[in-house]
C-alpha cells in the first residue's frame, strides 16, 4: 500500500485529491497543514487511511519527520514565501531520502502563454508568476523526480476533462477544473513514472480565448 504526504492539505485541489484517494485507491495519506483541526472530520472518518500533521512547510525538520515512511510527496502550497517553501521541501526530501514530488505551480512561469490571454494573465497575476517561477526553478534544479503541474485558471466544475502541454510548448486553453488537477495527482501516485521529471501545462480542451469565459 502506497503512502502519500500532502503538503498544504487543506487547499481546494488537495481536498478533492484526498477524497479521490480514499474513494478509489488503497493509498494511505499523511495530511500536513498549519491547523490540523481543520481536517479532523475527514481524518476521523478515514482513520485507518489518514493522519494529520500540524506544521509549517518551511520547517525542514518537521518535514523530514513527516516524510519518513512515504512514497510520494504532493505539495499543494501557496503564499509569498513559495520559493522558501520549495527550498525547504527539496532539502527535507534529500534528508529523508525521498525522490518523488508532485508540485502545483501556475501557468505563465516560462512566459509560455501566447497571445491576448498571455498578456491578460501576466497583468492579472503579476508578481505571483515571478514567485512561482522562482519556486519551480528550485524544484527543476534539484535531482528529484518531480512533476510540476501548471494549471490554467481553475474552476469548480465537477468534471475530469483536460489536455497536457510540455515545457517549451505554447500553453493551450484558459481554464481547467480543480477536479482534473486532483485526478492527475492521484494518477501519478498510482503510476509514479507518469510525467516524471516533466513540467506540464494542464487545460480543458477547446477553452481558448482572451481570458477565461467566466471571468
UniProtKB/TrEMBL annotation:
Database matches in Gene3D superfamilies: NAD(P)-binding Rossmann-like Domain
Superkingdom to which the source organism belongs: Bacteria
Region (Disordered): 196-215
SUPFAM superfamilies: NAD(P)-binding Rossmann-fold domains (SSF51735)
Sequence ranges assigned to domain NAD(P)-binding in this UniProt record: 8-192
Protein name in the entry: NAD(P)-binding domain-containing protein
Source organism (scientific name): Companilactobacillus bobalius
Lineage, highest ranks first: Bacteria, Bacillati, Bacillota, Bacilli, Lactobacillales
